[in-house]
Amino acid sequence: MAPTCSGADRLSAVGSRRDERHGGRVAALQLLYQREVGGVVGADLDAALERYWEEHPAPASRRAFAASLLRGTIADLERVDPLIQAAAENWRLSRMAVVDRVVLRLGVYELLVGDAPPAVVIDEAIELAKAFSGEQSASFVNGVLDGVKCALDNDPEGP
């Protein structure tokens, strides 16, 4: 008799994938923060990644997702930062709290190239802001990412 997949099994699988991706976003956020504050780049970034996973063991899928977000966000800062700057009226990137700036960069990168729906990306960014910064930061992140999403939706050339 072939095994069946109940609705609960499917929900568990979806929840597991969501948890893995959330964990990957947390790791990417922490590593991006380390890069911002400590100036970690190049080979030092690779070493920081290795140290992170030694201290926070995780499945290969989470590690790969986090590394992809980390490297992609860094590589696309020239596309990401102007979008944040345009949506964050009266706020220069340099004046934003480091955590807020990193959460925004991660979120905008995912809006540009990620496969998650924009609502999920924004919700995840809000949760990261709440967990690592605060309630006011969550509102700020929500407003900026919503502005970026609207700008991307209205761009005839696409992201």
Account of the 3D structure:
It is a single chain. The chain is mostly helical and 159 residues long. Helices cover 77% and strands 0% of the residues. It is built from seven helices and no strands. Helix 3 (60-75) crosses helix 5. It is globular and about 40 Å long. Residues 1-14 have low confidence and may be disordered.
Task: Summarize this structure briefly.
By secondary structure, this protein is mainly α. The protein has helices at residues 7-38, 42-55, 60-75, 77-87, 98-113, 118-132, 135-153. Helix 1 (7-38) packs across helix 3 (60-75).
What features would you highlight for this structure?
single chain; 159 residues; mainly alpha; N-utilizing Substance Protein B Homolog, Chain A
Tell me what portion of residues adopts beta-strand conformation: under 5%
Order of helices and strands, N to C?
Answer: HHHHHHH
Class based on secondary structure composition and strand pairing:
mainly alpha
Dominant shape:
globular
Q: Which CATH top level class fits?
A: Mainly Alpha
Q: How many domains make up the 3D coordinates?
A: 1
Low-confidence stretches: 1-14
Percent helix? over 70%
Number of helices: 7
CATH topology: N-utilizing Substance Protein B Homolog, Chain A
Number of strands: 0
The rounded distance between the terminal residues' Cα atoms is 48 Å
Please describe the biggest sheet, giving its number of strands, its sense, and whether it closes into a barrel.
none
What's the CATH architecture name?
Answer: Orthogonal Bundle
Rg on CA atoms, Å: 17 Å
Averaged pLDDT, please? 87
- Determine the CATH superfamily: NusB-like
